[in-house]
Design a protein that fits this description.
This protein is α+β, with helices and mostly antiparallel strands. It is built from 2 helices and 8 strands.
Length: 157
């Protein structure tokens, strides 16, 4: 599909449902998962991944209008996986670099910022290596997205 047609097709898909036993959509991000805590990433669960999904990716970023930061990029998650434990990366998944230039969960620090935990269903593996550049990883995820869902926090408690 051409870019515009693919985007229109993706907009008609049912969204993936994303939740967390520790984070409420629209609520504050618990400080345990921020730079003030030591828990790492919060646990996430997702459902309604469409048939034909070949891999799953997760991107955590701020919803800043300018100078947004990407706090985590995880890709090539097995499509049969439907949850992520606190402070962990699923077996076989890879982490791309964040805005800091390092791979791994970079805990959010700006208490007034909104943070988005977005789960993407992809029609192929990203097939980049651990520590892939942020630009490469985000482009590859965007090119392969067939559905997505999001949990958004209002700030950090």
């Amino acid at each position: 599909m051409a870019g515009g047609a693919a985007a229109a097709e993706r907009s008609r898909l049912e969204p993936i449902s994303v939740s967390s036993p520790r984070v409420r959509d629209g609520g504050p991000l618990p400080s345990d998962y921020s730079c003030k805590g030591s828990a790492g990433n919060p646990p996430l669960r997702w459902s309604r991944v469409p048939e034909g999904t070949k891999s799953v990716a997760i991107v955590v970023d701020s919803n800043a209008r300018y100078d947004g930061e990407v706090n985590w990029v995880v890709f090539d998650i097995d499509p049969r996986t439907n949850e992520l434990a606190e402070g962990s990366v699923p077996a076989g998944a890879m982490e791309g670099n964040t805005t800091t230039g390092r791979a791994g969960y970079n805990p959010p620090c700006n208490a007034q910022e909104n943070y988005r935990f977005t789960v993407y269903a992809l029609d192929a593996k990203v097939s980049l290596s651990q520590g892939a550049s942020l630009g490469q990883a985000l482009r590859s995820i965007a090119d392969k997205t067939i559905a997505w869902g999001r949990l958004t926090t209002a700030n950090i408690e």
